[in-house]
Amino acid sequence: DAKTTQPPSMDCAEGRAANLPCNHSTISGNEYVYWYRQIHSQGPQYIIHGLKNNETNEMASLIITEDRKSSTLILPHATLRDTAVYYCIVGGTSYGKLTFGQGTILTVHP
Amino acid sequence: EAQVTQNPRYLITVTGKKLTVTCSQNMNHEYMSWYRQDPGLGLRQIYYSMNVEVTDKGDVPEGYKVSRKEKRNFPLILESPSPNQTSLYFCASSLFGQGSYGYTFGSGTRLTVV
């Protein structure tokens, strides 16, 4: 599976959009980009995933560059409850390994 | 409610005393997996199972065993726990592996081995 690079931490004001970047320059053509988040020590929560096209669901939007070497997770109106560690993961067409990196600690403040 | 259930949530045990952490999912998922999470090391995969009677090692399988006799259950067995297995453990399940589906994680089991 390809590796990902994320900033260790980011801040965001409540009500504003949070844009979390992820670099995955070694991604292969059949690998998906997944985003999860973990609040405190709870189980990671799936947010969104995509292959080539931009995706949107009730939680977030995922923007994947045309060359697929990077992506951005967008939380359109961040709330205090969005404070968490956000993980960008690449992989998935084969069964098995789901490799988490260190993620980005997003802090949303009032 | 669709969920992955782990038990117990907290466990303190002594070195060498065999223990089992249970994991059950009610979503008819083929794929299940175990992870441990340690400060500075992130989440690391221990074992995974693609379906009943099919299991394989992840990144850190030493000291652990698993079994998949039924689709819904995937217990993690520590036959002789040691202090370095003190960790936060998560079970996860998915339909057809990660593929084009996301994983559902359990709430975690915090294990302390003294």
Strand content of chain B: over 45%
**What order do the strands of the largest sheet of chain A run in, or round the barrel if closed?**
1-9-8-3-4
Structure classification of chain A: mainly beta
Q: Which whole number gives the mean pLDDT of chain B?
A: 92
Helix-strand pattern of chain B, N to C? EEEEEEEEEEE
- Give the low-confidence spans of chain A: none
Distance between the termini of chain B: 36 Å
User: Ranges of chain B with pLDDT <50 over ≥5 residues?
Assistant: none
Report the average pLDDT across residues of chain A. Answer: 90
Notes on the protein architecture:
The complex is a heterodimer of chains A (110) and B (114). Chain A is mostly beta strands and 110 residues long. In chain A, 0% of the residues lie in helices and 45% in strands. Chain A has strands at residues 9-13, 18-23, 32-38, 45-50, 55-56, 61-64, 70-75, 84-91, 104-109. In chain A, strand 6 (61-64) and strand 7 form a beta hairpin. Chain A contains no helices and nine strands. The radius of gyration of chain A is 13 Å and the shape is globular. In chain A, the strands form two sheets. Chain A has a five-stranded mixed beta sheet with strand order 1-9-8-3-4, with no helix packed on it. The relative contact order of chain A is 0.35. Chain B has strands at residues 4-7, 10-13, 19-25, 31-38, 42-51, 54-57, 65-66, 76-78, 87-94, 104-105, 109-113. In chain B, a hairpin with a 2-residue loop joins strand 5 (42-51) and strand 6. With 114 residues, chain B is mostly beta strands. The mean pLDDT of chain B is 92. In chain B, strands 2, 4, 5, 6, 9, 10 and 11 form a seven-stranded mixed beta sheet that branches. In chain B, strands 1-3-8-7 form a four-stranded antiparallel beta sheet, with no helix packed on it. Chain B starts with a strand and ends with a strand. Chains A and B meet through strand 3 and strand 4 of A and strand 4, strand 5, strand 9 and strand 10 of B.
